């Protein structure tokens, strides 16, 4: 797939049309599309297998919060018709198996180099190509670089004094060992009560002799009501796939097929509203939040849903003091990613589970055998850090990316990520980001957003090839306007009211910017399509001829 060219140092170097960074769901589909249009591509993946976030997040209970029949590729009808999801919400091992199946079915592996990190990517202005250095010490060149690095793939270790000196085992949910971890008979601490903590706590509690959960912020969680999928249920979905996929792409705000609400929470009386919340609670899952159309917009409306969930927590958890601590009270429901769980709150009724509120009793340090909080030592044999990710920008920031005039992307993004459509950043020609900041990404069914970006990028590079174009980059003005728009739309909602990872608030020192685009998956797709139809409005495209002229006049 590659041609050997002499490099500056005289050693043979490989050259590709495209280097793709990451072999998760984005990188795999990108490779497939590029190959289909006859382009050469090399994918570099730091893990030793495909799957991205599902390769790393192997913690007990890890499961997707979007239903499996929808959290799957739609680009191949054969694939979606032949794959059998076993449960309503797929567990991590099954999603990983699916990723491996896709890699084999479309013969992707020959173009993926595993166990290889991209360390640096530098744009060579005179040649109009990227020079990409990998952890293997090799440098290759490519016309385009696509960052398929994932939004939740850079696990964040908490900065807690003494962590290094802990004598027991330390695990991070986002970087879990490949071999099974058995906590039977052990005293375990889980720090963090986001989605990963909430999914793993019930399972660890069943194994551990004692589990202590350290909670900084109580979180809203809805029962998953996970269940085995019957062949009948799968078949009903498969038959409706054309409409389900169309709706998810074009009409849904979050890329999920569901009933769209036509009224606000305050349009119903107390009894009717309660009945609707009850019905969604019994149904389970993320669609709890789409029962009304204003829960993300109006605080009074939001309070009705938040109160309902708080009441549920009080009903489930027997000890009133523990129940009170578990009731979220400092952010609107949904303004942090809502969690879905299996028996999370009920787990606190177990005699072997203790909840420690580290807001009132902060963790002071970790000693050789204990977590010290509020002047008390909680002795443990193992520590589980469910402390999340440096989301959306963390994995990009780990690569030393240099654009025009040697400008570092990290420098440009020091005050917060700046992109046009979440796809490109001005000053970094031919560098694309899949589900980057400024696009719906993490506010959506990721696979729907991944497919949209991959298709858009693949069409765009085909357009460039057909028009003899050499470079493309975001126009600074268009980018500034888009960044302002992303920000403006975010502040029409309740989302910025929470200290969430959407805002970068979980990483000390990270700028507080609402990173994803909240305008909705359907409208966003339309914007991207319109821009492409207008000859990529807001992007600057230049041909090889122009490049030579610029070079000659210097
Ligand atoms: P999250 O949702 O970022 O949750 C991380 C949790 O860890 C959250 O409760 C944090 O509290 C807590 N945290 C983070 N740092 C610390 C320190 N230093 N001390 C104590 N507690 C801490 O990550 P997840 O992995 O659970 O889920 C990420 C996404 O993956 C999820 O939204 C789904 O989309 C899938 P905080 O809330 O910041 O006070």
Ordered list of secondary-structure elements with their pairings:
Blueprint: E1 3-6, E2 12-21, H1 25-36, E3 41-44, H2 53-56, H3 77-82, H4 92-105, E4 112-113, E5 118-124, E6 129-134, E7 139-147, E8 169-172, E9 187-191, H5 195-207, E10 210-215, E11 221-223, H6 231-250, H7 270-283, H8 299-316, H9 320-326, E12 339-341, H10 344-347, E13 353-357, E14 363-366, E15 370-373, E16 376-379, E17 382-385, H11 394-397, E18 400-402, H12 409-412, E19 431-433, H13 446-466, E20 469-474, H14 476-490, H15 521-533, E21 539-543, H16 544-553
Parallel strand pairs: 2-3, 2-7, 3-4, 5-18, 7-19, 8-17, 9-10, 9-17, 10-13, 11-12
Antiparallel strand pairs: 1-2, 5-6, 6-7, 14-15, 15-16, 20-21
Helix pairs in contact: 1-13, 8-9, 13-15
Residues 152, 158, 173-174, 191-197, 216-217, 337, 358, 386-388, 501, 506 line the site of ligand NA7.
What is the residue-averaged pLDDT? 94
- The percent range for helix content is 25-40%
- Which ions, cofactors or small ligands are bound in this entry? ligand NA7
The major β-sheet equals:
9 strands, mixed
Count every helix, treating DSSP H or I runs of 4 or more residues as helices: 16
What's the overall geometry?
globular
Number of strands: 21
Radius of gyration, in Å, reads 24 Å
Distance between the termini: 35 Å
What is the structural class?
alpha/beta
């Amino acid at each position: 797939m590659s041609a050997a060219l002499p490099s500056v140092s005289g050693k043979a170097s490989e050259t590709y049309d495209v280097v793709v960074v990451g072999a998760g769901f984005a990188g795999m589909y990108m490779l497939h599309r590029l190959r289909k249009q006859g382009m050469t591509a090399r994918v570099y993946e730091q893990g030793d297998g495909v799957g991205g976030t599902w390769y790393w997040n192997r913690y007990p209970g890890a499961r997707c919060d979007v239903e499996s029949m929808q959290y799957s590729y739609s680009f191949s009808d054969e694939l979606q018709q032949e794959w059998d999801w076993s449960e309503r919400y797929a567990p991590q091992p099954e999603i990983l198996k699916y990723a491996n199946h896709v890699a084999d079915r479309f013969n992707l592996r020959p173009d993926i180099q595993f166990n290889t990190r991209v360390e640096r990517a530098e744009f060579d202005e005179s040649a109009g190509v990227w020079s990409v250095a990998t952890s293997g010490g090799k440098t290759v060149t490519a016309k385009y670089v696509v960052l398929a690095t994932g939004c939740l793939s850079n696990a964040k270790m908490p900065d807690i004094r003494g962590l290094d000196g802990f004598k027991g085992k330390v695990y991070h949910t986002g970087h879990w060992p490949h071999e099974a971890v058995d906590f039977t008979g052990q005293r375990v601490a889980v720090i963090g009560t986001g989605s990963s903590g909430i999914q793993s706590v019930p399972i660890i509690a069943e194994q551990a002799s004692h589990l202590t959960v350290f909670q900084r912020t109580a979180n809203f969680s809805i029962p998953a009501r996970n269940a085995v999928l019957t062949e009948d249920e799968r078949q009903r979905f498969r038959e409706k796939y054309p409409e389900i996929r169309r709706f998810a792409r074009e009409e849904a705000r979050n890329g999920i097929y569901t009933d769209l609400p036509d009224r606000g929470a305050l349009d119903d009386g107390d009894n009717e509203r309660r009945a609707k919340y009850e019905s969604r609670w019994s149904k389970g899952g993320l669609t709890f939040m789409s029962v009304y159309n204003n829960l993300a917009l109006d605080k009074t409306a939001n309070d009705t849903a938040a109160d309902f969930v708080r009441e549920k927590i009080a009903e489930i958890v027997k000890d009133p003091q523990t129940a009170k601590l578990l009731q979220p009270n400092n952010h609107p429901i949904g303004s942090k990613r809502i969690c879905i769980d299996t028996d999370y709150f009920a787990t606190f009724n177990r005699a072997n589970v203790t909840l420690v509120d580290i807001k009132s009793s902060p963790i002071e340090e970790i000693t050789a055998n204990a977590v010290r909080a509020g002047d008390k030592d909680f002795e443990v044999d193992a520590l589980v850090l469910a402390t999340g990710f440096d989301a959306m920008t963390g994995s990009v920031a780990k690569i030393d990316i240099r654009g025009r005039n040697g400008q570092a992307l990290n420098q440009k993004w020091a005050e917060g990520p700046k992109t046009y459509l979440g796809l490109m950043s001005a000053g970094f020609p031919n560098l694309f980001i899949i589900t980057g900041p400024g696009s719906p990404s993490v506010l959506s069914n990721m696979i729907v957003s991944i497919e949209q970006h991959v298709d858009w990028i693949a069409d765009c590079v085909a357009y460039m090839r057909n028009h003899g174009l050499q470079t493309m980059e975001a126009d600074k003005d268009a980018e500034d306007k888009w960044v302002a728009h992303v920000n403006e739309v975010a502040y029409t909602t309740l989302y910025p009211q929470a200290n969430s990872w959407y805002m970068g608030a979980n990483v000390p020192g990270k700028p507080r910017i609402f990173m994803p685009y909240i305008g909705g998956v359907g409208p966003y797709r339309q914007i991207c399509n319109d821009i492409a139809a207008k000859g990529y409005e807001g992007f600057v495209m230049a041909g090889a001829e122009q490049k030579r002229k610029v070079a000659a006049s210097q």
